[in-house]
């Protein structure tokens, strides 16, 4: 009924055009399925949950050059001023800022250094008891630091910090049995008791090998260079950010306030390359599909003009319009299927190559399948309009010139 | 003849405007996409200092004990410890060498006219300027004596000089950095650097520092690094002196080795140095290891060109392949339709060669127009790239090489696509078409 045999025979007589189309479809399938996979990968990376109300948090840097003050005292004053500012929920001096791409990491060990034992990489912040409230994260077990547990110093003293609050990811890695709360871990040779657990918060690097491992250590060492994190009430961040420089300089003027940035802005900067890659790939596959569709469209038009007489003759001999349309559709479907078969193989090979040379994960077959179906539908759509035009060729054409 | 062929091509272009336009569009889009990704790749991998990139070597020493690992591909730390840097710097060897580190200060003047701001500083030795080919607008580098005595001197960039001193010769003026005043000894000319190859620790496309100061100030002023400090074992370093003596790595080190002999001599020296240090209980390993990488090797080793860029370039060329197949199809259609005309020309005495050439010229013309349009599209693409990523602003441009290669690639692609159709059409047997006229 679909007359595949004669169509196939006709195709064999003008191979080149068909082969070209076949190659186009194959490469298109290979590129689109692989690119779609990378795009999907980036989208889920960019939209991942960070655990912070990013829209309400911002940070700024303080660089003090005046030497006529005690830095620790000054920061106490600054913090209480900030916390009282209208619109501010809480503020804290933080040794690093989440999602910013800059920070410190070390390892937490089950045994004190230099003894060997389980050792887990983690990022850490030196921050005070306002950490949880400032970053708006959820304490799911245990308790917050008390004010007494926070060590504030500018000097080297014998007094040492002895507690920590960690993320659930870090706790589970240190104590897979889930009994870590209250245990002692070692930061170098410094013992720290785990007193609280945070459900989810990301560290400074989203691309770290352990992006979810983060620990708060209650220790404030005031230095001439410091970073402060501030959480505001929803919708009031922009206003507070605008006032912050003046407010800080009014408190003490011999310093520079800069890098006033929202957490979402920091995240955007950190992920800029990934967003760029995603956008470029989206542009690339969109245009690619359009070009391939255009190619099919052009080639069908050309075939039709070449076969005008043949079509007219068929119509004169009694072929219905639908038979003409279906002829072109079937022809296209034949080429397309062959192209897709080749395309699936190419896609798998390309995926393997990307996996081998770059850190791209294995291409799931579902991406190839979906792409193949989409390309097939697209090719049918591209053929439909020219085929309908062909169907409208009048039978008289066939009889007019012989 | 060539002009005549061009004229014929233009007529043919006008005769089938739609198909011709589609072809030009296909090639333009293909070139536009390819050139966008290729330009970024090209700018990222371009040699930042071609005249001496093979003479400047980044020095790495394997300081870790056996059994410890680093994340680099060859397990070598990227930077040096302070003590190694100082020892190598003071070594009695003749080559130029430089140790350095990035830090920063609040910058202000003794007046209220300029609001204090943060300035990035490079703590380095005086050879830095001649090694990396920096030129001075005013003054010059600090002297060896000033370096040795940790003198409070500073070289500033033209931009800072414009900002603080309105572009006037500021040599001898004082500027305040944190709590100390420093004397300006030199102003360097604008240093346009796309890739900060001399210190890739905090991103390859970061800005060059604004202040350059003696390396010896690190010790004198207890300056901490604004770049990376990494350790591989647990060390207690409560004081700055402890940190200077520790095994933490945080100093970049480069040597200028102009000849093979010089390089060999330096390698020998490094080995001897490590052996001597072994006697003091450091470098606890069976095999002593060092690495000298020149600028281009260093950039490659640090993955300046990201994976994403390589993938994009690869996919773009595949994309160009699709465009090529597309054009081939359209050309085939266009040329074969013209077979009767070709038949007449052949009958009138045109040789196959001439027909072939005529069609190639036509194809090349399409390629040229497509290439030009492609450059316009690539510029749009690069504008988008530049806007989406601050660091890319300088990189997202086409230099002369790229501008010239765009039409070249376009024409080559088109001629490749045109070979088969042109060959097919020149084989046309004139008799058939003459009969049916």
TrEMBL record, chain A:
Compartments where found: Cell membrane
Q: Which Pfam families match?
A: FtsX, MacB_PCD
What's the superkingdom here? Answer: Bacteria
Q: Does the keyword Zinc apply?
A: no
The answer to whether the entry has keyword Transcription is: no
- Grouped into one coarse class, the protein's main location is membrane
Sorted alphabetically, which InterPro entries does this protein's record hold?
ABC3_permease_C, MacB_PCD, Macrolide_Exporter_MacB
- Residue intervals of the ABC3 transporter permease C-terminal domain: 282-395
Annotated ranges, domain MacB-like periplasmic core: 75-246
In the bilayer, the protein is annotated as: Multi-pass membrane protein
* TM annotation in the entry: 276-302, 323-350, 362-385
Instruction: Give the keywords, sorted.
Output: Cell membrane, Membrane, Transmembrane, Transmembrane helix
Q: Which family does it belong to?
A: Belongs to the ABC-4 integral membrane protein family.
Q: What is this protein called?
A: ABC transporter permease
**Taxonomic placement:** Bacteria, Pseudomonadati, Pseudomonadota, Gammaproteobacteria, Alteromonadales
TrEMBL record, chain B:
Membrane-crossing segments per the record: 21-44, 311-336, 356-382, 402-426
Q: Record's Pfam families?
A: FtsX, MacB_PCD
Q: Where in the cell is it found?
A: Cell membrane
- Which membrane topology term applies here? Multi-pass membrane protein
Instruction: Give the domain of life.
Output: Bacteria
Task: Please state every residue range assigned to the domain named MacB-like periplasmic core.
Answer: 20-220
Tell me the keywords, alphabetical order.
Cell membrane, Membrane, Transmembrane, Transmembrane helix
Chief location: membrane
ABC3 transporter permease C-terminal domain location:
315-430
PANTHER family for this protein: ABC-TYPE MACROLIDE FAMILY EXPORT SYSTEM PERMEASE COMPONENT 2, MEMBRANE COMPONENT OF TRANSPORTER-RELATED
- Protein name in UniProt: ABC transporter permease
- Higher taxonomy: Bacteria, Pseudomonadati, Pseudomonadota, Gammaproteobacteria, Alteromonadales
């Amino acid at each position: 009924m679909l007359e595949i045999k004669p169509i196939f025979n006709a195709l064999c007589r003008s191979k080149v055009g068909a082969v070209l189309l076949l190659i186009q479809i194959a490469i298109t399938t290979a590129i689109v399925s692989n690119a779609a996979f990378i795009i999907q990968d980036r989208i889920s990376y960019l939209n991942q949950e960070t655990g912070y109300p990013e829209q309400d948090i911002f940070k700024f840097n303080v660089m003090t050059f005046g030497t006529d003050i005690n830095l620790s005292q000054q920061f106490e004053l600054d913090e209480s001023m900030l916390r009282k500012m209208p619109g501010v929920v809480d503020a804290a001096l933080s040794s690093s800022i989440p999602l910013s791409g800059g920070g410190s990491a070390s390892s937490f060990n089950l045994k004190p250094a230099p003894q060997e034992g389980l050792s887990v990489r983690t990022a850490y912040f030196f921050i005070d008891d306002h950490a949880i409230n400032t970053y708006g994260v959820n304490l799911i077990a245990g308790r917050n630091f008390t004010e007494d547990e926070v060590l504030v110093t500018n000097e080297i003293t014998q007094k040492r910090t002895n507690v920590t609050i960690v993320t659930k990811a870090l706790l589970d890695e240190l104590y897979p049995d889930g009994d870590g709360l209250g245990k002692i871990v070692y930061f170098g040779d410094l013992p720290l008791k785990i007193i609280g657990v945070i459900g989810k918060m990301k560290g400074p690097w989203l691309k770290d090998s352990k992006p979810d491992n983060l620990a708060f250590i209650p220790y404030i060492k005031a230095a001439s260079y410091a970073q402060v994190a501030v959480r505001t009430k929803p919708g009031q961040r922009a206003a507070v950010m605008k006032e912050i420089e003046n407010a800080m300089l009014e408190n003490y003027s011999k310093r520079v306030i800069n890098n006033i940035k929202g957490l979402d802005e920091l995240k955007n900067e950190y992920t800029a390359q990934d967003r760029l890659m995603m956008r470029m790939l989206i542009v690339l596959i969109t245009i690619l599909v359009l070009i391939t569709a255009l190619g099919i469209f052009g080639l069908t038009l050309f075939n039709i003009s070449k076969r005008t007489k043949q079509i007219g003759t068929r119509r004169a001999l009694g072929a219905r319009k639908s038979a003409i349309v279906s002829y072109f559709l079937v022809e296209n479907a034949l080429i397309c299927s062959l192209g897709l078969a080749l395309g699936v193989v190419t896609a798998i090979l390309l995926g393997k190559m990307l996996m081998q040379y770059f850190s791209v994960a294995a291409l799931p077959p579902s991406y190839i399948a979906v792409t193949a179906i989409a390309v097939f539908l697209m090719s049918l759509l591209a053929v439909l309009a020219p085929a309908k035009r062909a169907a409208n060729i009048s039978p008289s054409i066939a009889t007019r010139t012989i | 003849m060539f002009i005549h062929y061009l004229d014929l091509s233009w007529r043919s272009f006008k005769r089938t405007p739609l198909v011709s336009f589609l072809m030009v569009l296909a090639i333009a889009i293909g070139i536009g996409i390819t050139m966008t990704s290729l330009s970024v790749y090209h700018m990222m991998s371009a040699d930042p200092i071609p005249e001496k990139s093979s003479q400047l070597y980044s020095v790495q020493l394997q300081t870790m004990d056996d059994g410890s690992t680093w994340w680099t591909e060859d397990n070598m730390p990227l930077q040096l410890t302070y003590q190694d840097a100082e020892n190598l710097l003071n070594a009695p060897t003749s080559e130029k060498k430089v140790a350095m580190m990035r830090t920063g200060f609040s910058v202000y003047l003794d007046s209220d006219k300029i609001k204090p701001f943060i300035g990035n500083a490079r703590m380095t030795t005086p050879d830095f300027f001649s090694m990396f080919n920096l030129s001075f607008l005013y003054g010059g580098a600090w002297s060896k004596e000033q370096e040795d005595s940790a003198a409070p001197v500073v070289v500033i960039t033209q931009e800072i000089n414009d900002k603080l001193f309105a572009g006037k010769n500021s040599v001898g003026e004082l500027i305040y950095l944190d709590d100390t005043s420093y004397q300006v000894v030199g102003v360097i000319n604008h240093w346009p650097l796309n890739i900060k190859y001399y210190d890739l620790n905090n991103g390859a496309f970061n800005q060059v520092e604004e202040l350059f100061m003696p390396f010896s100030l690190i010790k004198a002023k207890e300056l901490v690094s604004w770049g990376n400090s990494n350790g591989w074992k647990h060390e207690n370093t409560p004081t700055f002196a402890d940190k200077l003596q520790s095994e933490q790595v945080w100093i970049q080190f480069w040597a200028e080795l102009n000849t093979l002999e010089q390089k060999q001599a330096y390698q020998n020296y490094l080995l001897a140095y490590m052996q001597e240090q072994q006697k003091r209980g450091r470098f606890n390993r069976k095999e002593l290891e060092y690495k000298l990488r020149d600028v281009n090797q260093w950039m490659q080793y640090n993955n300046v060109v990201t994976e994403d860029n390589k993938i994009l370039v690869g996919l773009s060329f595949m994309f160009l392949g699709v465009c090529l197949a597309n054009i081939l199809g359209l050309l085939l259609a266009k040329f074969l339709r013209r077979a009767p005309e070709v038949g007449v020309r052949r009958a009138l005495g045109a040789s196959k060669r001439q027909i072939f050439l005529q069609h190639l010229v036509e194809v090349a013309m399409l390629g040229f127009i497509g290439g030009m349009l492609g450059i316009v599209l690539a510029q749009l693409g690069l504008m988008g790239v530049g806007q989406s990523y601050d660091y890319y602003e300088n990189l997202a441009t086409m230099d002369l090489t790229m501008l010239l290669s765009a039409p070249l690639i376009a024409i080559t692609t088109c001629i490749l696509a045109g070979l088969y159709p042109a060959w097919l059409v020149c084989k046309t047997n004139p008799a058939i078409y003459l009969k049916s006229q």
